[in-house]
Design a protein that fits this description.
With 260 residues, the protein is an alpha/beta fold. 35% of the residues lie in helices and 20% in strands.
């Protein structure tokens, strides 16, 4: 299924080839889609990034590009990701193997687009991947949107970052040098527990900015307790809405770091 407004190209690293969808011009931003895949909402977010003066790179990791969201579609792709060797969904102190390929794509985006570096945003299953990508200095604007790995099967898993200790040390050094991290989540989202943001604040200090949008009972904006996808499926594109403000923060970070 084609994605309107995007061109696609194959990218191979370490013997693994995937299609990458690309749109826009300017500094590169790698957008790692959520479960179940590159839905129309994810593609819409990528178009917003491109319209803001960036080259959006959408690597195809699972699902069917352009296929709309549905619960059966989500269930099927979640099952595939859970048994895939490229996604370590329960690993607390280890990144998923696919992040090596994504780092290489970030380097390619930087080579193609120039500028001080690239942005990287992960969502849900890929939410924490931007931390792993920060090990490569090409990544200058990392965003974690509802980071959901590892799955919160225990208290330790809820607080974990899906990152090795050695990579965390590199991330902390990069944050100390000015490459801060932005995180987004809904407060009632069980897939992205508050303990994870507490760990990020403890480890990264003021270098982590966590935007937590109230989705509890009786919240002022009527946000559902099932809300999960901050800048895609659950985005309310209205002035003053907290998801719209979160989107503005993401685009603002990209402009600040990549368009000095």
């Amino acid at each position: 299924m084609a994605l309107e407004g995007f061109t696609d190209f194959p990218f191979t690293h370490d013997g693994v080839k995937r299609d990458v969808y690309k749109s826009g011009s300017g500094p590169g931003v790698v957008i790692m889609h959520e479960i179940p895949g590159i839905t129309p909402e994810v593609a819409g977010f990528a178009r917003r990034v491109a319209d803001d003066g960036f080259t959006a790179y959408l690597p195809h990791m699972f699902g069917e590009p352009g296929k709309p969201f549905s619960l059966p579609y989500v269930a099927g792709q979640m099952a595939r990701a859970c048994i895939s060797r490229e996604f370590s969904v329960l690993a607390r102190r280890q990144s998923s193997p696919i992040t090596s390929w994504l780092r290489a794509l970030c380097r390619r985006a930087h080579e193609q687009c120039g500028g001080p570096g690239v942005g990287a945003i992960g969502m849900c299953l890929t939410g924490n991947f931007a931390l792993s990508l920060m090990v490569d200095e090409a990544v200058m604007a990392p965003v974690l949107s509802q980071p959901s790995l590892p799955f919160g099967v225990s208290a330790a898993h809820k607080a974990a970052l899906h990152l090795s200790d050695s990579d965390l040390e590199i991330v902390k050094k990069r944050v100390a040098s000015g490459c801060g991290v932005l995180g987004l989540r809904f407060t009632a989202d069980p897939l992205c527990p508050p303990e994870r943001f507490e760990t990020l604040r403890r480890e990264l200090g003021e270098g982590f900015v966590g935007i937590e949008i109230d989705s509890g009972r009786g919240n002022a904006h009527g946000i559902s307790r099932t809300a999960h996808s901050v800048v895609t499926a659950d985005l309310v594109d209205e002035q003053g809405h907290p998801t719209r403000e979160a989107l503005a923060s993401v685009l603002g970070l990209f402009r600040e770091r990549l368009q000095p």
